[in-house]
């Protein structure tokens, strides 16, 4: 059991020496613990309001006063939801450790791993998905991983899941109200509208699982997939972007029968560039396998680069439009590129018109790709650590809501729909941390470093 009334303290900055270091303390009564270090003349009277002030701390174990900036959050509007104080000073480990020891001598205790974030979770400041993202930020070893962790921490997935739970709770309440008036001709919920909402929820959970699992199987690079009809210039563009001849290029349509992958970087953004077979119906076992592989790569893509040749015929344009629309509906991150612009200059479309032969538009395309991918990551994905914890709950929630939708669609009894809604809500609650056990929290927060 956690002792939430204790004042906890720890070094919150990165281990080792640095220009600046931070000691964080939090808990009821933290002001009185820290106030003993600060002479009244230097601002101890400021502890009653949110502020930042400069002080010369009197720290036991240090022979001279220590210059520091003291940041005060006196109430629940702090990260932990409790009064919190941070001391910003010289990033010397012996000095920071001396501050922590002095705080302990004055009544605080050393924080356990992840205890500050645990208190934020228990105070309702963040949910469990966001708490795991804090660890993801700490452990990130690439810009891509950091961006994914920050996206999860910002609460995009959490907000969607919270809205979903709130709507399901409303539907459940309406259904249960109807059960109390089963003999009356009163409809408390529009079955058709509820069925549509349940179908949307199942689709979102399915996409969340697919995107997260696909991301977990990649190298951490953003996946950019070249797609389009056969002979649209995909392989030529692939070779130009990676700077070498890796893909076989031929004027014969259908030359690419498999997919190729090349790791590259555009101004610090790591990319996994993928060349796929042209979109067409499989005419034999090999081409059918190629089309299946192409679809799999497209489903896992962070961005689809859809190629259309400038010299394409009217029939090819019509076919291209029909095939491309299926991806526009399911994949927001799609860019259309007009290739071979040297063959039909009048068909160019601004910045996304390129000619590998003439060296036209490639730098603009690289710049645009970098800009799109550097701000990406909003599809709704979970960190691998969160997905590992939530996989079973996601599956159970999807299954329960799918059954609820089926019962609702077939005009089944309210009690059947309500039963499945309760099961779905319980599983979603486990993901967000509305439903949890002490063992689960211990397992999650014990992986944190002390001070976070």
From TrEMBL:
Its EC number is 3.6.-.-. GO terms for biological process: tRNA methylation; tRNA wobble uridine modification. (6S)-5-formyl-5,6,7,8-tetrahydrofolate binds at residues 24, 86, 125, 452. Residues 8-125 form the GTP-binding protein TrmE N-terminal domain. Gene3D superfamilies: P-loop containing nucleotide triphosphate hydrolases, Probable tRNA modification gtpase trme, domain 1, tRNA modification GTPase MnmE domain 2. It is found in: Cytoplasm. GO terms for molecular function: GTP binding; GTPase activity; metal ion binding. Its cofactor is K(+). Binds 1 potassium ion per subunit. One of its GO terms (cellular component) is cytosol. Residues 165-192 form a coiled coil. Mg(2+) binds at residues 235, 256. K(+) binds at residues 231, 250, 252, 255. Its main location: cytoplasm. It is an enzyme of class 3 (hydrolase). Keywords: Coiled coil, Cytoplasm, GTP-binding, Hydrolase, Magnesium, Metal-binding, Nucleotide-binding, Potassium, tRNA processing. InterPro entries: G_TrmE (IPR031168), GTP-bd (IPR006073), GTP-bd_TrmE_N (IPR018948), GTPase_MnmE (IPR004520), MnmE_dom2 (IPR027368), MnmE_helical (IPR025867), P-loop_NTPase (IPR027417), Small_GTP-bd (IPR005225). Residues 224-327 form the G domain. GTP binds at residues 231-236, 250-256, 275-278. Residues 128-449 form the MnmE helical domain. The keyword DNA repair does not apply. CDD domains: trmE, TrmE_N. Homodimer. Heterotetramer of two MnmE and two MnmG subunits. This is tRNA modification GTPase MnmE. It comes from Caulifigura coniformis.
